[in-house]
Amino acid sequence: MSPLIDSANMTPSYWLRLREAVIEAVEVDGCDAVLVLHGTDTLAYSAAAMSFQLLGFSAPVLFTGSMLPAGVQDSDAWENVNGALLALGSGLVSGVQLYFHGQLMTPVRCAKIRSFGRQPFAPLQRSRGGHAVVSLPDALNYRQAKTLAEVAVLPLFPGVGAAQLDGLINSGIRGLVLECFGSGTGPSDDPQFLASLENARALGICVVAITQCHEGGVELDVYEAGSRLRGAGVLSGGGMTREAALGKLHALLGASLTTEEVRRLVELDLCGELR
User: Fold this and answer.
1) Interacting residues of 141 by C-beta distance below 8 A, sequence separation 6+
2) pLDDT at res. 130
3) Which is the catalytic residue, given 40, 185, 211, 241?
4) Looking at residues 137-164, what average pLDDT do you find?
């Protein structure tokens, strides 16, 4: 792809171009598989996003990269490239996977957890549950082009209020990943914060709650604070990672789906992000 970019400059619009390049490589150029070389800073985000952009794809797509550039001493670049090629040659199943330091991982269940060493990625011990989608809507099939959707992430913190939430709501977003405390709690005693969430729902903005914790997931009906968020229109992201939730919202909102259909599909498993 051209131009090549530093992964810190990755954008959702580049994801749409990457989707097209992967499809072209297989269906036009006749490749049996696709290896994507990607900087590690946003590799997990891109691999998770492609998992949703390429639903139903018939070939394996494998992401890898390196912590040190290929030209420097003790680089892990060739180790990962060679290992990824061997993995592809052994016959991987169709769909998107991530390879690093000898380990194959499911992108929608892992994240970059450290900024040093030869293995920065790891599967997160997020909760599993919920139901799988019975039939994938045609609009989500990889053959259907997606449009660019504006999606944001807001981590909750002590002192967060309606002002921060309204700033995002008024920016033109269509989806919001709300990183909650624990099993899905937030400032539920703040009537203005809840009113802002209700306003987001009225505007058709899809708000999905995930946990800030490294392990576990969201259960909005366990505590009253979570139940109030649910009552204000917030959807449960279960055990989804930030990367998976962001990529899923981009795919759902970029497809020709109604708001009601998007809200329904958020809480159903599409490619292993919840189950």
Assistant:
1) 55, 56
2) 83
3) 40
4) 97
